[in-house]
Design goal:
With 278 residues, this protein is α+β, with helices and mostly antiparallel strands. It has helices at residues 96-99, 104-108, 123-138, 143-155, 164-195, 197-222, 243-251; strands at residues 2-8, 30-32, 48-50, 66-72, 83-85, 87-94, 254-257, 262-266, 271-276. Strand 7 (254-257) and strand 8 form a beta hairpin. Helix 3 (123-138) packs across helix 7 (243-251), helix 4 packs antiparallel against helix 5 and helix 4 (143-155) packs parallel to helix 6. The N and C termini lie far apart (61 Å).
Length: 278
Amino acid sequence: MSIYYKIAQPDGWDFYTGKTINYRQAVGSIVKHPHPNPQAGICSNGVLHASKDANLCFVGGRIPCSLYRVEGKPVIAHDSDKAGFTQFKVLEELDTSTHFKWRYDEACNPVHPLQLAPPDIDDNIIKLLQVWASVRASVGDSVRASVRDSVRDSVGASVRDSVRDSVGASVRDSVRASVRASVRASVYASVRDSVGASVWANVGDSIWDSVGDSVWAYIGYIFIPVVRKWKYIKHPKDTYPFQAAVDLWKMGLVPSYDGTLWRLHGHEDARVLWKGKV
């Protein structure tokens, strides 16, 4: 018998049907697949799935979740992220807030900048914007690639190399989905409406990319506890190179850039609070 990890919906029910097995109610007991069919393969609904690393469980799961330590003998050997079981014992429920070393709680409830009351724009805020503009330029407008690849490599560092990409990608994509569902779509739409149709028609792609980089900077911030080196940009040890964007985000300010002018947006309608060159 070996130890594995399993995630389920926040109320304990399985992700697949939402009603087949409640893992919270089964702590201390053996759970069995109601219709086992190992011959269907590892990716089928004929087996229960569990993973050697809790971060791997997000392949097929999502945030928010509940987390369990289970014990069993797989009937299908572990592939890149999971093993298949007809049954296993649910040993205990784990605290997601402490077991995951990245900021799980914030991933579940991401900060929405347009729901905050932004401060008056002063010199300190403009200095932050200048830092963000400089960092964004130095990374070649590839904040997304830096966050994506850094998280992929670092989150999976504790498990064998063959599954590293899968670990990083599954967690990263779950966090991204959570942020997108709660924040991204409304931020994009509000900024687009704020700058106006004529501006958007001419430089909408640039504005879209700049707002997207702030979203990715915030996603990266969630993983700061487990990432020490951020790819494609030089930065002092144990510092987050995209922190200026996060600081603005948490003040209730969303920067956008049209290729010539920077704007700072705030409030629910993403109104332009400042516009100029930095």
